[in-house]
Write a structure and sequence with these properties.
single chain, 326 residues, alpha/beta, 5-stranded mixed beta sheet, 8 helices, 22% helix, elongated
């Protein structure tokens, strides 16, 4: 197997394949160093060369392998069997959705709150935007890398360390999603119906594809609260990993699987299912599934326990599958 005259992989056929007739030869995609790189497999210069030595000389036959993505074009993987590592390149298209509330004083209802006069002067001033669009883009990419990287098991029983490298791209990338800066307003919900793949996503695309950055004075169902920049950053990165994760779930499990948060929420209302109706409760210890909705109070250590499940990460690797049309 050659890439621009460089040998990627070579094998000598066994004697039982040297007789005249049809023989099946297989290659698992790993190169001579034990690395499988889907970018290499999709390189248009990759070719297969068959060389036959016989009494009259040498005969060579070449053919292009024409590797193309089999599932999704927005993900590539490099698997190293020597170091038991998997590096994933996840390409996302992040757009600027704008902002609301910037430059405004806290709302009148906030200024009437008991104890407002004793608040620090910094939270009583007109809101100065603390994160640019480029900074929010970085927080999105960091969230994907943090919450989708983990250890997984292999079919041989060993463990592989998976590292996700999320990058912004407009080429061979996921369906675009906007980031929106929100302050001095009601809490803004994030949502990502993603690409249209079926009935649910067709109607879901009437919902905004956005990740909301809620900071400063934000009104919740129980009243107004002030969200610091550091708290807003943490929440935003985790939310980004969840919302963009819907595109991954939909790609491998279908719209219903994604929209129901893996069966933990109602598809239409997006409300968490009760335990009696098949919902789940926050576990007292251990990992928390990034893509599920939970009943109960969010644990104090939520952000140190939440990450993508092993099944979801393995499925993300599967979505990088390559087929040869040669």
């Amino acid at each position: 197997v050659l890439l621009k005259s460089k040998i990627i992989y070579q094998a000598i056929l066994p004697n039982n394949m040297l007789n005249q007739g049809n023989h099946l030869w297989e290659w698992n995609g790993y190169d001579q160093t034990g690395i499988l790189n889907t970018k290499t497999l999709k390189d248009p210069a990759l070719m297969l060369e068959f060389e036959c030595h016989y009494s009259g000389g040498v005969h060579q036959q070449q053919m292009n392998l024409n590797g193309v993505f089999a599932k999704q074009d927005w993900v590539d993987v490099k698997i190293n069997s020597g170091t038991n590592t998997v590096d994933i390149e996840l390409r996302v298209n992040i757009q600027d959705g704008g902002s609301e509330g910037v430059g405004e004083h806290p709302p009148a209802s906030v200024r009437k709150m008991q104890g407002y006069a004793s608040q620090p002067s910094s939270v009583k001033q007109p809101h100065i935007r603390t994160q640019s669009f480029n900074n929010l883009k970085v927080l999105v990419l960091q969230g994907l890398s943090k919450y989708w990287s983990r250890s997984i098991s292999s079919h041989s029983g060993g463990r592989y360390s998976v590292q996700v490298n999320a990058i912004h791209s407009t080429k061979n990338a996921m369906d675009d999603i906007e980031v929106f800066y929100n302050t001095n307003r009601s809490w803004l919900r994030s949502s990502n119906p993603g690409s249209v793949r079926g009935l649910y996503s067709f109607f879901g695309n009437f919902v905004p594809e956005r990740i909301a950055y809620n900071v400063g004075w934000i009104e919740y169902s129980n009243g107004w609260n002030y969200i610091s920049g550091s708290d807003a950053n943490i929440a935003f990165s985790e939310t980004a990993a969840h919302e963009i994760g819907h595109e991954i779930l939909s790609a491998y499990g279908g719209d219903k699987y994604s929209y129901s948060h893996k069966g933990s929420s109602s598809i239409l209302t997006q409300k968490t299912k009760t335990s009696a109706n098949g919902g789940v409760t926050y576990p007292s210890q251990g990992g928390i599934d990034l893509m599920k909705y939970y009943n109960g109070r969010r644990p104090y250590n939520f952000y140190s326990r939440v990450f993508a499940s092993e099944q979801d990460v393995k499925s993300l690797i599967w979505l990088a599958s390559v087929r040869f049309d040669g």
